[in-house]
Automatic annotation (TrEMBL):
NCBIfam families: 16S_RimM (TIGR02273). It is found in: Cytoplasm. InterPro entries: PRC_barrel-like_sf (IPR011033), PRC_RimM (IPR056792), RimM (IPR011961), RimM_N (IPR002676), RimM_N_sf (IPR036976), Transl_B-barrel_sf (IPR009000). Residues 9-88 form the RimM N-terminal domain. Residues 103-169 form the Ribosome maturation factor RimM PRC barrel domain. GO terms for molecular function: ribosome binding. Keywords: Chaperone, Cytoplasm, Ribosome biogenesis, rRNA processing. It comes from the Bacteria. The lineage of its organism: Bacteria, Pseudomonadati, Bacteroidota, Flavobacteriia, Flavobacteriales. This is Ribosome maturation factor RimM. An accessory protein needed during the final step in the assembly of 30S ribosomal subunit, possibly for assembly of the head region. Essential for efficient processing of 16S rRNA. May be needed both before and after RbfA during the maturation of 16S rRNA. It has affinity for free ribosomal 30S subunits but not for 70S ribosomes.
Length: 175
């Protein structure tokens, strides 16, 4: 399994017990949907290694307490401390309506209600305080904020996202 086929679930942040249980800080809006997992991929020296789970449950909101089959003492827990956990993209719950995962909209066309087709989504920049669509049009890059006010519709069948951009924003890039 390659990282490109997976999504980042979280990171092992601390040991929980002398029996090898660990706490994982989840990167998830709904951590409760990961309570009954049977396995995960653990990144060890940049390789994804499958780890099977005896028991896992939520611990204080966004932490998941995991008892792995392969980790039964503190020394074994120490070896995976700080490791990142991944799941296959196929394990993501399907989203409907105007909700989407950033990876699923790469290659979608963006259609503005004033300017029409303003290009293809080549990526999403989520390192800023406001996530941005990275759009390519005729060799130019446009950055459009991803907000409920701007995003009007996601048409998965047509691979198109409809937006209403603020006056002048598209002209700033294409004008």
């Amino acid at each position: 399994m390659q990282k490109s086929d997976c999504f980042y679930l979280g990171k092992v942040v601390s040991k929980y017990s002398f029996k090898g249980e660990v706490l994982v800080k989840l990167d998830a809006d709904e951590p409760e949907i990961y309570e009954n997992m049977e396995s995960v991929f653990v990144s060890i020296r940049n390789n994804l290694v499958p780890f099977f789970i005896d028991k896992c449950r939520l611990h204080k909101s966004a932490l998941l307490r995991i008892d792995f089959e392969e980790v039964k003492d503190e020394a074994a827990a120490d070896r995976i401390m700080g490791a990142e956990l991944y799941l296959p993209l196929t394990a993501l719950p399907k989203l409907k309506g105007n909700k989407f995962y950033f990876h699923e909209i790469i290659g979608f066309t963006v259609n503005d209600d004033v300017h029409g087709d303003i290009g293809l989504i080549t990526g999403v920049n989520d390192t800023t305080s406001q996530a941005l669509f990275e759009i390519e049009k005729n060799g130019k890059q446009l950055l459009i904020p991803i907000t409920d006010e701007i995003l009007t519709k996601v048409d998965r069948a047509a691979k198109t996202i409809f937006v209403t951009t603020p006056d002048g924003l598209v002209d700033l890039y294409l004008g």
